Amino acid sequence: MKKIMLTIMFAFLSVSLFAQVPVTFQVNMGYQIRHNLWATTDTLVIRGDFEKAVDTSYSDWAGYQFMMTPRSANDSVYVAVVTFPAKDTVGSVYNYKFVATVNGTDNWESVTGGGNRTFTLDTPSVTLPVVNFSDQIDLLVPTVKNIVTITADLTSYYGTAPGQFDPSKDSLVIMGFSNWGGWNPDPNTFSGNRTLQPVFGQPGMYSTTLTFYGPVGDSTAWKFKAYPDANFGNGGGYELGDNRWYHYVSDTTNAQVVGPIVPSLIIFAGDITTDQKITFNVYMGNAVDFHNKVVIDPAKINFVGLKGGIKPIGNWGGTWTVSDTVDAPTYVDTISTLKVLHKVSADVWSITQDFPIGTPAGSFEFKFACDYPGVDTANSGSTYLDNEMGFGINHSWILADATSPVVLNYIFGTQDSVAQLPTGIKQLGGNMPIQYSLSQNYPNPFNPSTIIKYSVPKQQLVTLKIYNMLGQEVATLVNNQQSAGNYAITFNADKLASGIYFYSLNAGSFISTKKMILLK
To answer: Which fold has domain 2-135?
Structure first.
């Protein structure tokens, strides 16, 4: 039985750690072709800050590694598929631009509003919408009529109890199909009811049909939003995660069916009836700014911030800049939209936040921010403090009445909470390692603490995770960029049951897993 369980666990680890993620880039060169600014014999490439993540021998924002070719014969839409190593890069947000080389001269596109294009890497694959080079749209581009029926499945939320979608009070609306991204449909020709209506005979199912015009192969962004704002979290009813995209088709007669989709909503469950205190702790050792992948020196951190989708912690207000830490009177019940944590140890920052009586109960999301010298130059100077994780990737917690204060522990850049902050990470002295290694924990068996030592010969992303016999992750001890060296970490398993556990080190292409025994 033990051998079977080990086989299952290692199979689980192999699938998750060796997967690759293909990303499809698409750009329409129709304007440039029709205005003789670019010919099909010229060269079109993608460049960005993702190139080293694909292959360490490449240089970011340079080269001709990622050439684009026509999607089909006589098509002005060009496509390229770039394969990323998922084990190192999933969840990362990257910047990029298209570059057209004409007569030996590189012509970088200019994106509306300045800055770069961005995308978030996600499994199992990512297909980016078709965009226009330099956002130039030829007025002669033919647009076609699209009829779309969008259906939402709210059966998992449906009901009249607190925390449910109450059909007598709540509604669901289609937002976007405007200037959120991609093609901007003409509002004068956009028709249909954005508010979804109940589907007859199917409680919890909602639907609506919209009509608008756009070019075949292009796309537009949209999202669900629930009303009224006071009943829902995440900025007042917007579903969690990134925008959804609709891709235009040539069929102008039959309605295109989208869904049914289960929106990811946060529904407040009444109000808390007692004052609550929640302590947010975050470990900043070897934290990385996801915008530019810079390893943040803990000694140079000016402050760590906290912001989330509920009033006591900002209700997602503000601009993710230093100004959010000062008085923001336009956000009700909020002194500032970005709460400042205080330093409690070399690598741990903390804040105890009051959630007063009357605060809506239910799930809410939040994330941390890190201010350090030069951070305001990241992300082209825009929302530079939203630098823990990518868009729509947040921490979450369910607020409810409790008899004792709540303490939450997180590692900066890691989505899930941890039972024990990795304050025991130490970089050991001695010779610089020339190879990877993972030592047997000591003592073993242990109760409840043990020490795990490992070595990495170069700077890179290092993860050290604990799994149970079923292959389920029970703790993340390390998930950060680390410089070359020898390390030791103390693992405290006081909240785990006795049994056999496995710890797995992943650094670059090196993976090693060992067994340990907890006896209480």
So the answer is: Immunoglobulin-like (2.60.40)
Which residues, other chains included, contact 200 with Cβ-Cβ below 8 Å and sequence gap of 6+?
Answer: none
Chain center to CA of 369:
14
d(CA 110, CA 134) in angstroms, rounded, equals 5
Up-side HSE of residue 156: CA atoms within 13 Å toward CB? Answer: 10
- DSSP type of residue 65: S
Antiparallel, parallel or unpaired: β 348-355 and 276-283: antiparallel
Fold of 276-411: Immunoglobulin-like (2.60.40)
Q: Which residues contact 201 (CB under 8 A, 6 or more apart)?
A: none
Tracing tokens 């076609």 back to the chain, one arrives at: 144
CA 265: distance to chain centroid?
16
Q: From the DSSP assignment, how many helices (H) and strands (E) are in the chain?
A: 5, 35
What is the SS3 assignment for 168?
coil
**How far is 29 from 463, CA to CA, in rounded Å?**
42
- Report d(CA 446, CA 388) in Å as an integer: 34
3-class secondary-structure state, position 312: helix
CATH code given to domain 426-518: 2.60.40.1930
Q: What is the CATH number of domain 144-261?
A: 2.60.40.10
Per-residue pLDDT of the chain (520 residues; tens, 9 = 90+): 555 554 445 444 444 444 688 999 999 888 887 677 777 778 899 999 999 989 888 999 999 999 999 887 667 889 999 998 876 667 889 999 999 988 888 899 988 878 899 999 888 889 999 899 998 876 556 778 899 999 999 988 888 877 789 999 999 999 998 877 777 787 878 899 999 999 999 999 999 999 998 888 788 889 999 999 888 877 788 887 778 889 888 877 788 899 899 888 888 878 889 999 899 999 888 788 988 888 888 889 999 999 998 889 988 888 999 989 986 555 445 568 999 998 877 788 999 999 999 888 887 889 999 999 999 988 888 899 999 988 778 888 888 888 888 888 888 988 877 766 665 666 666 677 888 999 998 888 888 888 899 999 887 888 899 998 888 888 888 877 777 888 888 888 877 888 899 999 998 889 999 999 998 8
Domains 2-135 and 144-261 fall in the same CATH topology: yes
Nearest to 353 by CA among 339, 342, 363: 339
Q: How far apart are CA 6 and CA 504, in angstroms?
A: 13
Separation CA 32–CA 181 (nearest Å): 20
- 225: which 2 tokens? 């939003």
Could you tell me the residue ranges of all domains in the chain?
A: 2-135, 144-261, 276-411, 426-518
Torsion of CA 78, 83, 89, 93, to 10 degrees: 0
6-10, Cβ contacts within 8 angstroms, sequence gap of 24 or more: 8/470, 8/471, 9/467, 9/469, 9/470, 9/471, 9/502, 10/513
Output the pTM of the full model: 0.48
